[in-house]
């Protein structure tokens, strides 16, 4: 293949990965109605990502990426063989599915970190990514509204005393993380629009997305709304000191935040947090529901703690090989596999010390590169793009640690990979322009 054709193909693949984001919510709705498009398409995307890395020009970065992907492949082979020999029961299908879902995030992370900088030649590259995220968040919120109106939403919780639904999407935790990460980019897109008329016209869309986040009923989505709006408000209060134009943003952000807090008690998350207007926004005493007593309540309140204890016990009792290469999906279970639902801990126990180190390596290197670059260029630290993209990434990583369903869930992890690539490109832009 000539260098010209190779470069053209590389550009095509880069654009494909950027616009692939737009398919995500539609794929998840199709999966909900048992149309199996999402798994093969995301599998093809992961394969295309590996091909893309191979097509890149010969640089130290490409060599490092290829070496890493090869090492990851060898690790996975040893991981599967080890567990096939010592794990009983061993379900190859479950093991491979979990393994591929986890690798999907790593491969897409590398693709977006390497691919987004090459499209910065387009002057509107940020607006393109922001607009796609906005379209997806609006699509998700609209689907949830339709599900709400028709009474067909998928319940976020199994417990009857808990309220909230995830529309026509399977996982409430997964969806709350997606909306939590995307909301920062939605607010960024709104803030960076020049026309105040456009900003005002976008307010119903922002309101719909906030309503959807409160309707899921999870703390992650509710907390994300408060963190994003609070951070943006503080940032623009600082900007308004030197530029009176930004008082408009301060007033609008204050109104959105106040409106969110005002409607919260009437929403599922308000019910789940026992918030009421009876004496202002106060927390009511928790009522005991007999349906939730016993094992159901115990699982809801301390399920992660129990699963963590079980995983740690299994890990201590496992052979050195399993401690190094992982216990596999759900650990050395006897009846059915259980995840802790705290992704980084699941990584450690399911893939062992070697696997955890391999998975954390790109995150650590990329994070260090972003931090080092921003420290050298302080003016970027207080730029709204850097701040809100950084908040979105932190919300994604925080959700992965606290609530899970991110790093091994392609539907959510693709957004985290995109946003890390976006933040990396923002921080490295001056270096890229100088040809470094």
Layout of helices and strands:
Blueprint: H1 3-20, H2 24-32, H3 38-55, H4 60-86, H5 92-115, H6 125-150, H7 172-192, H8 196-216, H9 219-240, H10 247-263, H11 268-272, E1 275-276, E2 282-283, H12 295-317, H13 320-325, H14 343-376, H15 384-402, H16 410-433
Antiparallel strand pairs: 1-2
Count of β-strands? 2
- The class by helix and strand makeup works out as mainly alpha
Please indicate the count of domains: 2
User: What's the rounded overall pLDDT mean?
Assistant: 87
Low-confidence stretches: 279-302, 432-436
Task: Give the biggest beta sheet.
Answer: 2 strands, antiparallel
Q: Could you state the order of secondary-structure elements as H and E?
A: HHHHHHHHHHHEEHHHHH
| Assembly annotation | single chain
Q: Please give the radius of gyration in angstroms.
A: 23 Å
Helix content: over 70%
**Order of strands across the widest beta sheet?**
1-2
Q: What is the straight-line distance between the termini?
A: 27 Å
Outline: globular
The fraction of residues assigned to DSSP E strands is: under 5%
> In DSSP terms, counting alpha (H) and pi (I) runs of 4 or more, how many helices?
16
Transmembrane segments: 16-35, 41-58, 65-86, 98-116, 128-147, 167-191, 198-214, 220-238, 245-264, 347-366, 387-407, 413-432
Pfam families: O-antigen_lig
Protein name: O-antigen ligase family protein
Organism: Lentibacillus salinarum
Commentary on this structure:
- The chain is built from 16 helices and two strands.
- It is an all-alpha fold and 436 residues long.
- It folds into two domains: 1-119 and 321-436, no CATH class; 138-293, no CATH class.
- A hairpin with a 5-residue loop joins strand 1 (275-276) and strand 2.
